Amino acid sequence: MKKGIIALLSVFLLGASSVLMVKVEQLKPILEEEEAIPVYNFNSMVFLFPALREALADFFYMKTCLLTGTGGFEKKERKKEFSSKDWERLVGSLYTIHRLDPYYFDPYYLEAAFISWMVKGNPELIERVNQNLKYGLEFCKDWRIPFFIGFNYFYFLGNKEKGAKYLEIASQMKGAPSYLRLLTSRLYAESGRIDFAIAVIREELKNTQNENLKRKLEKRLKALESMKLLYKAIAVFKSRFGRCPYNLKELIVKGILIKIPEDPFGGKFYLREDCSIWTTSNLRDKN
């Protein structure tokens, strides 16, 4: 008897779900033929289906995967190339999914690992993707979310300092790989924030118990301290001569330094056009 009741209840719930999804589809705005991406209204969804937010988020996510050709279970390809407007609408739809279920990780991953690459030539859309991911950072304590935000900043938007900031957040979260600590300091150094880079390394040296990582951090710290010495010498040069030196050798010629410090990674420090310091080793061992 109980099995029969359960079976009937299952059939009822399945039918109700089907009716629900039909109703949801009817809530989509009517689009012109060339517009491929629907935008769902979050307020309408919550008003009509207050107890089914997670189910709606899952349904919309599956629809998004099919639209973008990322629904691997069907291996469906997009019927046409999306325009910037299409991608903009898609990112907007994903924000609705995030708000419906902010703890649902998969939509964030789709946005970061796929959509970011599809809109990489559009800085405004990359920034919108990052805003969506920042929303997720408040709910999903997964190191990959700040990692993707940081990656988007330094790789697609060319902002190494912001990239380093979010990679630093990622490196401190549970499950984060140890290489993020080294990458964070390198990005701070490459953006000219040597003091930040040194502070990150010193903090990691206090906390890490991994001897191999500790040796790498100490080597990185030595290189950063040499770079800091060069930055101080350049500041002295500027105060005396009112300009950036033409090259690092000029610091020796003008008597500010006795010699150029060595890069422990085997590279050579050099002066960039913006009067910042970098090294041919990129602060990494040459394997």
Would you mind describing this structure in some detail?
With 287 residues, this protein is an all-alpha fold. It folds into 2 domains: 20-140; 173-287, no CATH class. The protein is built from 12 helices and 2 strands, in the order ααααααααααααββ. Strand 1 (269-271) and strand 2 (277-279) form a beta hairpin. Helix 7 packs antiparallel against helix 8 (160-171).
Shape: elongated
Low-confidence stretches: 1-35, 72-76
The count of helical stretches stands at 12
Strand order of the largest sheet: 1-2
Distance between the termini: 70 Å
Share of residues in helices: 55-70%
**Strand fraction:** under 5%
* Structural category: mainly alpha
The averaged pLDDT comes out at 82
What profile does the largest beta sheet have? Answer: 2 strands, antiparallel
What's the SSE pattern? Answer: HHHHHHHHHHHHEE
Count of the separate structural domains:
2
Query: Quick one: how many beta strands?
Result: 2
Helix-strand layout with pairing:
Elements: H1 2-26, H2 42-48, H3 53-68, H4 84-100, H5 105-118, H6 123-137, H7 144-156, H8 160-171, H9 179-190, H10 194-207, H11 211-241, H12 249-253, E1 269-271, E2 277-279
Antiparallel strand pairs: 1-2
Helix pairs in contact: 3-4, 4-5, 4-6, 5-6, 5-7, 6-7, 7-8, 8-9, 9-10, 9-11, 10-11
Can you tag this structure with a few keywords?
2 strands, mainly alpha, 12 helices, two-stranded antiparallel sheet, elongated, 287 residues
Please summarize what this structure is.
The protein has 287 residues and is mainly α. Helix content is 63%, strand content 2%. The radius of gyration is 26 Å and the shape is elongated.
